[in-house]
């Protein structure tokens, strides 16, 4: 592949590509609203058509219990690795509508940014994958890797049917690498490859004291207060330096390598600006770790909600009989969500204050994910970015979880490469979502370079 | 006074007295409901008429910003002590009506119990005071003490205008002893004189972290969680043995005398039954004190409410920016509410976790009250009970606060004697409120004996 050929191709077709993308973005495929069911179906059809047009074969709109998955494949690179490309054609709702400068489904370009719901998350990025493959097929007549597309319509409603779909079509989806373009650059001009996500486990904690709320005058002092009990219990979970005190909690945590630590340190990060943006008097977290390390590679235990007793205005001298808390942990490799949940339950049993009973109920769990930093598929992505952007990409992790990554990672057991082209400030899920066209241009090239780099990297 | 004469008088007039009381109870003088404003006025008139009929002079229905106070006096016992009798003619609402066996304002006697709203709390007891004075005036032609009546119509809505009323008519209400009959016997057949009440102070605690709720994945670990902070802060207020850890909190607490401790120990109290009734796995409170001591003579700090973050069903992986708590302390002599509030605020300042700001706002306060156990007015009440009931009365305290006691105690600076004739199981504020007629009979005699005992006791 000649870089200049590809570059010329994209330059030449830029207007046409953007017109096509505008057409795609004009479809209000809001998966959460039943009024838009037909629009979501239209989104699936548009995606399938776009795949067919560029030469993808066996394109199918595959039903699920909810919105369908669009599948397609190009498997003519005999003996070469197979890449599964995941994305989604559904979008978030658009309320509050009056905050949009131009209507969300009337795509408009201003200052080299394309404004529309889905421009960045994720139709824009799905479209780039399609156009990158098109460009290679048009200019080279072939691809260096085999490609499978799996573009779903329920990402914005939690990919509720994807687990079952992947389970059912495990063989059909079989691949060597999964590539997802639904994340962001580290910052403008600094591409990022996210190679790790935190997992999740959590539970509700219910504390029960007396048979009902009591008069704090008549009974106060003689009966355990459910709120005192829960406060006391919760305060044992984390110490005042931010360390989780649950026995065994850190046992399986992979320590950061010296190389990773140095790489994170080298990333541009302004802690004072971060503090100001969040409007906190100071940053706070586990001692001995930087902010990036705390959010990327260290596990957490957060109290997400506490409630009990009187919440109205003023005073009510009640001795509450019940108290409730919700906690979730963000987990890192190799913590196991079920194991951590059990450790916490054990801790709660050991620390239950006298005079109350405590019960717990578990929430959904997700395993932490990491593709080794030095995995050839990751390093190949780095080289592709470097070529397109002219700068070394950041190797990052993300503090959150992307459930589909776990779904694919677990069911297909393949490395996942998160190559995103959005920017953190592009208003995903909010009014005036947009996409910087410089990343449209550079992203298309990155993808083309990546397939060659990947083929090369996986050769051995 | 001859006991037999008084006894005969009450026996003879029992039917008539009960009929009159039923008439009183038939007035739905619900102070909290504006629909019943006229009924409350009727309640005041009935009370005033009843006072006039027995020979009380200068009876007035005195307006306040809300419902009026009924005042009356008999001041012909020259050189003798003056007693101020406080009670209230207003009643609680009656919902849920369908749980009443007979309508709340159609008084009915079953099994020697009088069922009606207000039977016990407090019209029945106000009525007894009126009839006791009547009996003495009829049989003796005079009273051993001077008497002032102050019967209000807003007790069930927090005596909202009484402070101002007492302040305004301080001179008119001047007396040597205040007697209130709005409390209960210790148990059936065991009268009680409550000589102490706990005071109250409290505050709202507001914790503020970041500018808004944050995604627990993206920010978790790097920013203080307002709920973690409040839990940590609240957990420092009380240790796990129920002791309040605020510096100086216990400094002014009057220690129990050996005599009082022995008297409490001698009272019938079944801790296991108490535990079962409250349905708690075990009783819990400050070490080294019995349940009665914990609720009567030891101060508390209770969390009345905590709220922050997500309270809905299931999970929301939020890192909350705000958390709130309401706390109140029950105080005992000689703790000062304002001083205790300041100690707590100081404690909060010293224990504020990093990464958040904490603000507090104070609630209304009430001073603890105690009339010395061996005060002649208290001991005289003991003898009167002993004569009427044939048993030694219990000298008790109450864990709650009665704001009017503090009002009178502070503004008039006189001892307060709480002589109640209700029983704890008589459903005050609940459906099927009732009054045991045995205590109507014995109570009338107790009151008659008391005025003589009191005159005797205050002689020196």
Outline the structure in words.
Chains A, B: Keywords: Hydrolase, Metal-binding, Protease. Chains A, B: InterPro entries: Cyt/Met_Dipeptidase, Peptidase_M20, Peptidase_M20_dimer. Chains A, B: This is Acetylornithine deacetylase/succinyl-diaminopimelate desuccinylase-like protein. The structure is a homodimer of 460-residue chains. Helix content of chain A is 35%, strand content 21%. Chain A is an alpha+beta fold. The first copy, chain A, folds into 2 domains: 285 residues, Zn peptidases (Aminopeptidase); 119 residues, 2-Layer Sandwich (Alpha-Beta Plaits). In chain A, strands 1, 2, 3, 6, 7, 8, 15, 16 and 17 form a 9-stranded mixed β-sheet that branches. In chain A, a hairpin with a 6-residue loop joins strand 1 and strand 2. The first copy, chain A, is elongated. At the A-B interface, strand 10, helix 6, helix 8, helix 9 and strand 11 of A face strand 10, helix 6, helix 9, strand 11 and strand 12 of B.
CATH level-4 homologous superfamily of the largest domain in chain A? Zn peptidases
Structural class of chain A: alpha+beta
Helix percent band of chain A: 25-40%
CATH class descriptor of the largest domain in chain A: Alpha Beta
Oligomeric state of the chains?
Answer: homodimer
């Amino acid at each position: 592949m000649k870089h200049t050929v590809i570059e010329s191709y994209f330059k030449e077709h830029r207007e046409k590509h953007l017109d096509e993308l505008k057409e795609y973005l004009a479809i209000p495929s809001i998966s959460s609203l039943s009024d838009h069911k037909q629009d979501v179906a239209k989104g699936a059809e548009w995606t399938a058509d776009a795949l067919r047009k560029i030469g993808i074969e066996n394109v199918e709109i595959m039903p699920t219990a909810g919105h369908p998955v669009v599948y397609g494949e190009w498997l003519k690179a005999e003996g070469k690795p197979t890449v599964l490309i995941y994305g989604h054609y559904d979008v978030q709702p658009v309320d509050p509508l009056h905050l949009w400068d131009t209507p969300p489904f009337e795509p408009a370009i201003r200052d080299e940014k394309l404004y529309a719901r889905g421009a960045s998350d994720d139709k824009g990025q799905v479209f780039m994958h399609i156009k990158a493959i098109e460009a290679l097929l048009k200019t080279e007549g072939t691809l260096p890797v085999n490609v499978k597309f799996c573009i779903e319509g329920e990402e914005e409603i939690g990919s509720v049917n994807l687990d079952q779909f992947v389970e059912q079509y495990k063989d059909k989806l079989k691949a060597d690498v999964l590539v997802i373009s639904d994340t962001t650059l580290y910052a403008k001009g600094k591409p990022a490859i996210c190679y790790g996500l935190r997992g999740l486990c959590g539970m509700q904690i219910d504390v029960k004291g007396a048979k009902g709320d009591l008069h704090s005058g008549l009974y106060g002092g003689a009966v355990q207060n459910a709120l005192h009990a829960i406060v006391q219990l919760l305060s044992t979970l984390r110490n005042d330096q931010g360390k989780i005190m649950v026995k065994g909690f850190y046992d399986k945590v992979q320590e950061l390598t010296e190389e990773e630590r140095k790489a994170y340190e080298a990333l541009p990060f302004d802690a004072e600006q971060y503090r100001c943006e969040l409007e906190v008097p100071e940053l706070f977290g586990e001692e001995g770790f930087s902010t990036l390390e705390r959010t990327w590679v260290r596990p957490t235990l957060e109290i997400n909600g506490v409630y009990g007793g009187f919440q109205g205005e003023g005073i009510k001298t009640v001795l509450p009989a019940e108290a409730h808390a919700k906690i979730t942990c963000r987990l890192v490799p190799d913590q196991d969500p079920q194991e951590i949940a059990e450790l916490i339950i054990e801790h709660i049993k050991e620390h239950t204050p006298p005079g109350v009973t405590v019960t717990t109920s578990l929430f959904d769990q997700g395993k932490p994910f990491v593709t080794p930093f030095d995995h050839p598929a990751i390093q190949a992505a780095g080289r592709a970015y470097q070529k397109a952007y002219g700068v070394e990409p950041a190797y990052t992790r993300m503090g959150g979880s992307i459930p589909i990554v776990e779904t694919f990672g677990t069911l297909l057991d393949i490395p996942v490469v998160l190559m995103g082209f959005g920017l953190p400030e592009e208003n995903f899920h909010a009014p005036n979502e947009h996409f910087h066209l410089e990343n449209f241009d550079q992203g298309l090239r990155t993808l083309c370079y990546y397939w060659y780099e990947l083929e090369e990297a996986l050769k051995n």
